Amino acid sequence: MSASLSDTLRTMRAHAARTLIETLNSIAEESHSEYALTETWARYLYEDASILPSGWYDPPPNGLAILAGAPPRYERSKFKTLRSEEFWPSRSVIAMPDSLFYCYCSPIHRRTGLIGDLGITLCQRPSPTVAKHIRNCYRITMEICEQARPGMKFSELYEWSSQRIRAYGLENDTLSVTNPVVLDIGHTVPWSYEDMSEGERSVMNSGTHDGVCKLVSRKRVFVSPTENYVIPDTCAFTVEPRLTNDDLPLASVHAIVCFERGEKHVIREFDPVLSALDMSYVYD
């Protein structure tokens, strides 16, 4: 029996979270560069034969990244897009226990083509101000997930989300190079709401990695102020606002909303990471 849509997404994200914990545990023993940590995560992540050997969001190389911002400004967190080479994991930036991390991966399920992106801002030793900011980011993301429902337009969900973000004194800075005209707070998981065409299946089965990446990227529909896509009874989409203001670093907690015949699932799977890093302040 094939796994359900929600089970497939949850399994991919749980694997991404487990391998991220393994990777970050190495920091306690010795210092590592962003590049070394990212390479370690890639090795753990792509050992799983159920996912393709590289992520769809490429560049950055292999479709994943760990960035480490140093206090007090956490400059590495303030990236516009991981597509830009200046924000690829660096050999010269050393991660420390008090770093503010942004960790992201974009695995592709080999059989279905579904994507199980995981993205999260992490900080073990934040100032009270930064701890509150990460906590608010988590709360806003969960509020958006709870608001989503079948029959709602993406533009309606975006507008509601924008009002909540402004109520917290923050702004969203999520901009896709695929959809550069407007900001967004997420996008659909391709093939969560329709079957692959024969041509798409051919690309997935025998195409180049670049071809697969382009196929997945172009197939997405964005949760943006101009998108009137109506959420159907069965689909999945990411919720990933990147929140900041003039005084705070950029932070993001990435979730997936999944509907199966109208039944709602919020795919989190980041909680074990928060627990492993003693980040209980997120839930205060």
Topology:
Layout: H1 5-25, E1 32-33, H2 34-45, E2 64-69, E3 94-95, E4 100-105, E5 118-123, H3 128-147, H4 154-167, E6 171-172, H5 198-206, H6 209-219, E7 235-239, E8 243-245, E9 248-251, E10 255-260, E11 263-267, H7 271-276
Antiparallel strand pairs: 1-3, 2-4, 4-5, 6-8, 7-10, 8-9, 10-11
List keywords for this structure.
284 residues; alpha+beta; Creatine Amidinohydrolase; 3-stranded antiparallel beta sheet; 11 strands; 33% helix; globular
Structure, explained:
By secondary structure, this protein is of the alpha+beta class. It has a single domain (5-283), classed as Creatinase/methionine aminopeptidase superfamily (Creatine Amidinohydrolase). Helices cover 33% and strands 17% of the residues. A hairpin with a 2-residue loop joins strand 10 (255-260) and strand 11. Helix 1 crosses helix 2 and helix 3 packs antiparallel against helix 4. The longest helix is centred in the first third of the chain and has 21 residues, at 5-25. It is globular and about 50 Å long. The model has no long low-confidence stretch (mean pLDDT 93).
